[in-house]
Amino acid sequence: MDEVLVAEDVRRSYGDTVAVDGVSLSLGAGEVFALVGPNGAGKTTLVRALTGTTDAAGRVELFGQSPTAIDRARIGLLPQDFTPHERLTATELVSYYAGLYDDARSVEDVLADVGLEEDSDTWYEELSGGQRRRACVATALINDPDLLVLDEPTTGIDPAGRRSLWRLLSGLADRGVTILVTTHYMEEAHRLADRVGLLADGSLVAVDSPEALVAEYGGQRTLTVGGTFDPSVAQTLDRPVEVGEDRLVVFDVDPAEIGGVVATLDGAGVEYDELAWSEPDLEDAYLELTGDAVGAVQGGAGRPAAVGGEQS
Ligand SMILES: Nc1ncnc2c1ncn2[C@@H]1O[C@H](COP(=O)(O)OP(=O)(O)OP(=O)(O)O)[C@@H](O)[C@H]1O
């Protein structure tokens, strides 16, 4: 794989605050890499360091050159805090950026790509939050870049718009464009990225495919059974379980095993109210890795994904 971006031991501090603490990373052509992490983890600072928009220690090369030496036409950058002049229409805004390059794409096409063809003559201040963000994304696409770096591109964009942007970005990646994206949406990282990097306190603590991260850190598939249970139910099932006040959690249950567990409970005359099977997702892996307990289900289990019927 051709290396488009190479970073070695990148560091950046603001006074006593260490924002990026020795990050090494390399991205290949056509790869989509999602950088995730809690607020203040250093994502924006890292993005800026990688694109030469802030000074940083360490080595960064884009297409084998320093970020400040590279032909800017090869890079599309959407900063997190990009705020265009509010009395520019979407067309005027993107046209301004088109004028910075010798060989820019058609403004009309790019606005259509981000779903703004109907609002191209609307002032930026009159666009909705999601439409504004789309207009900003368009400025990063106008030069048909080989490397696209988007800092929280879909913040404020509605689910349909977000999905359409994912399709657009996936299409670009299929054509060989390398994409580095930061996001707080785990579904976005999972659906879009070939690899996800989790940044915590300025360090990359895990880098892998979304599937591998979920498998390693997401926890187990579980069956949660609602009701009041005697602790002896653990012997009945002969499986790892956790008996809570109003529920029984059965760990490590594959979908094919649900029927067997339920049959065992029924056979032993155990009464229950409802069943919910869940499997871990990237958010579970994220919460496990960041140690952020908010919303996490005890025991590293995933969040309920499907609720079964009540016992008759
Ligand atoms: N210009 C600055 N001056 C001083 N400190 C800064 C500056 N920019 C960022 N920081 C600090 O560096 C750390 C990393 O910030 P950064 O914005 O890179 O995090 P982030 O992961 O992008 O956060 P968020 O998810 O909230 O956007 C934070 O502690 C932040 O307060």
- What is the annotated CATH architecture of the largest domain? 3-Layer(aba) Sandwich
Number of strands: 14
* Beta-strand residue percentage: 25-35%
Q: Kindly report the spatial arrangement of strands forming the biggest sheet.
A: 5-6-7-3-8-9
GO molecular function, one term: ATP hydrolysis activity
Family: Belongs to the ABC transporter superfamily.
Organism: Halomicrobium mukohataei (strain ATCC 700874 / DSM 12286 / JCM 9738 / NCIMB 13541)
InterPro entries: AAA+_ATPase, ABC_transporter-like_ATP-bd, ABC_transporter-like_CS, ABC_transporter_ATP-binding, P-loop_NTPase
Overall description:
It is a single chain. With 312 residues, the chain is an alpha/beta fold. The chain is built from ten helices and 14 strands. It has helices at 43-50, 90-98, 107-113, 129-141, 159-174, 186-192, 210-217, 233-237, 258-267, 282-290; strands at 3-14, 17-28, 32-36, 57-62, 75-78, 147-151, 178-182, 195-200, 203-208, 222-226, 241-243, 247-251, 274-278, 306-307. Adenosine-5'-triphosphate (ATP) is lined by residues 14, 17, 19, 37, 39-45, 80. The site of adenosine-5'-triphosphate has 12 residues, from strand 2 and helix 1.
Task: From the structure above, extract its key features.
2 domains; 312 residues; Alpha-Beta Plaits; disordered C terminus; single chain; Rossmann fold; 5-stranded antiparallel beta sheet
Task: Give the helices and strands, then pairings.
Blueprint: E1 3-14, E2 17-28, E3 32-36, H1 43-50, E4 57-62, E5 75-78, H2 90-98, H3 107-113, H4 129-141, E6 147-151, H5 159-174, E7 178-182, H6 186-192, E8 195-200, E9 203-208, H7 210-217, E10 222-226, H8 233-237, E11 241-243, E12 247-251, H9 258-267, E13 274-278, H10 282-290, E14 306-307
Parallel strand pairs: 3-7, 3-8, 5-6, 6-7
Antiparallel strand pairs: 1-2, 1-4, 8-9, 10-12, 10-13, 11-12, 13-14
Helix pairs in contact: 2-3, 2-4, 7-10
The structure holds adenosine-5'-triphosphate.
Adenosine-5'-triphosphate (ATP) is lined by residues 14, 17, 19, 37, 39-45, 80.
